[in-house]
Write a structure and sequence with these properties.
There is one protein chain. Helices cover 33% and strands 13% of the residues. A hairpin with a 2-residue loop joins strand 4 (183-184) and strand 5. The chain has helices spanning 25-41, 47-70, 81-86, 91-100, 111-127, 130-133, 158-164, 167-177, 224-227, 229-234, 236-239, 296-302, 327-330, 381-396, 423-428, and strands at residues 78-80, 102-106, 151-152, 183-184, 187-188, 191-195, 202-205, 214-218, 272-277, 288-290, 323-324, 338-339, 348-352, 357-359, 369-373, 378-379. Helix 2 (47-70) packs across helix 12. It has a 7-stranded mixed β-sheet. A 5-stranded antiparallel β-sheet has the order 11-8-14-10-12, with no helix packed on it. A two-stranded antiparallel ribbon has the order 4-5. The protein contains 15 helices and 16 strands. With 435 residues, the chain is α+β, with helices and mostly antiparallel strands. It is globular. The structure holds fe (ii) ion. Fe (ii) ion binds next to loops.
Length: 435
């Protein structure tokens, strides 16, 4: 089998790119797929040969994950907050985190503090008449869970802000950010020790809930992952036939580029998505699952190039909809889907931004399922660009611009006040240079 050419010996065909959604998505898909195929084939291997390398590696990983689950082992790595704080995380635990791309942080916050935040959130929404004024889900994505508010479009409570600007949160975010390669090509792609404050919502799912869950999907982007210049460079090893060199932990070219707008978009670059548990949750009560293989992105990005996918189709990926992982195109990955272990209020749960994830269905749920969504979103050009709109939303109690324009909190007098920001909160909002 021919080996990939050494860099510089072949001029690779250029890729067409669109920095905004192309007017004709199907035509652009046809063009970019043909160009990526030509580029891969210039490496001396066919698309099928390159894809086979990826599929084989992943198959081995899927078998190991399924076997671990069969043996009754926990697939999700678990690390104690105390070890992160003390810098005593065992090397094998770090290795497992990097292999699986997901993590439970035990005791991230004291349980009583998390339960207090949960009670505080109830007081905040009830005291402000939220349930009387609630107008139903404001976006397409979560509408499938029903008209009862499980996802509260609430961003600026004391509970959320205290958690976001806490030292404990900053320590865990820095630990997670540090798993990524943040400097290369003479560029510092992000600052691992400073997070931008990314406001997101809360979920409170009551006992007795019956829910269909959420199908496997991923959140880093949609067609922009193939079609914008920066993402084409971020995934350069996938698109030029050097898949062996693809590193899912390399932040190069991921932290400045544009994203195609849509209801599922996230303006921020997140190293990890995450949430903090505000109630105890058992592993079989409709919880988060992931396919815990960061390198599976190679499969997702190359799968549309195979001959069984129509030329104008990216395996169902399109703008304004979550990126699906489906039985039809991604079946070999799905046996690795693994749920979180039991968690307690105050634990936090994290997954690499490229991981496929889902929420399991549940009937007649036991206990509450309450979380605050707080990711790790380190300071970088993209997050710096988003920060002024976050600050404006904070000051006015508005919904952040990544979310539907619901603005429930604008008139709520007890939302978190600017005078209560600490240094971490100020830096997270980009306020450090303002005064
Ligand atoms: Fe998601």
């Amino acid at each position: 089998m021919p080996v990939p050419s050494a860099p510089g010996t072949v001029t690779l065909p250029a890729l067409p790119h669109w920095e905004q959604p192309p007017p004709d998505l199907r035509e652009a898909t046809r063009q970019v797929k043909a160009a990526i195929r030509a580029r891969i084939e210039a490496s001396g291997r066919t698309v099928e040969e390159v894809f086979a390398v990826v599929a084989q590696r992943l198959a081995a990983e899927v078998v190991q994950i399924a076997a671990a689950r069969e043996r009754g082992e926990e697939v999700w790595p678990v690390i104690d907050y105390a070890d992160i704080a003390a810098g005593t995380v065992p090397p094998e635990a770090v290795a497992l985190l990097r292999r699986r791309g997901c993590l439970v942080v035990r005791g991230h916050f004291p349980r009583e503090q998390a339960l207090g935040w949960d009670a505080g959130l109830v007081g905040y929404v009830e005291g402000n008449g939220f349930f009387e004024s609630y107008r139903g889900p404001g976006d397409d994505f979560f509408a499938s869970v029903g008209s009862r508010p499980e996802i509260y479009p609430v961003y600026w409570s004391a509970a959320q802000m205290e958690a976001r600007q806490s030292d404990r949160m900053a320590r865990v975010q820095a630990f997670l950010n540090a798993q990524w390669k943040h400097e290369s090509e003479g560029v510092r792609w992000f600052d691992p020790d400073r997070d931008s404050l990314y406001p997101d919502r809360i979920r409170r799912r009551p006992p007795g809930t019956t829910s269909g869950g959420l199908n496997p999907h991923l959140d880093p982007g949609t067609l922009d992952l193939w079609m914008t210049s920066e993402y084409q460079q971020a995934f350069r090893h996938l698109f030029d036939g050097t898949v062996e060199q693809y590193d899912p932990w390399d932040a190069a070219h991921r932290t400045a580029g544009p994203q195609y707008p849509g209801t599922t978009m996230c303006s921020a670059f997140r190293t990890f998505q995450g949430w903090t548990a505000l109630s105890d949750m058992d592993h079989d009560q409709g919880v988060l699952h992931t396919i815990p293989i960061p390198g599976a992105m190679a499969y997702l990005m190359l799968r549309p190039l195979l001959a069984d996918v129509p030329d104008d189709d990216m395996c169902g990926v399109t703008v304004n909809r979550a990126f699906p992982a489906s039985e039809k195109y991604h079946a070999p990955l799905l046996p690795a889907l693994s749920g979180i272990p039991d968690v307690r209020a105050g634990d936090s749960v994290w997954w690499h931004c490229d991981l496929i994830h889902s929420v399991a269905p549940v009937s007649d749920q036991r206990g509450w399922g309450n979380v605050m969504y707080i990711p790790a979103a380190p300071w970088c050009p993209r997050n710096e660009r988003y920060a002024p709109s976050v600050l404006a939303a904070f000051r006015t109690g508005s919904s952040p611009s990544d979310f539907p324009e619901e603005h429930y909190e604008r008139t709520w007098p007890d939302r978190f006040a600017e005078r209560d920001l600490n240094a971490t909160g100020q830096r997270g909002l980009g306020l450090d240079g303002e005064c």
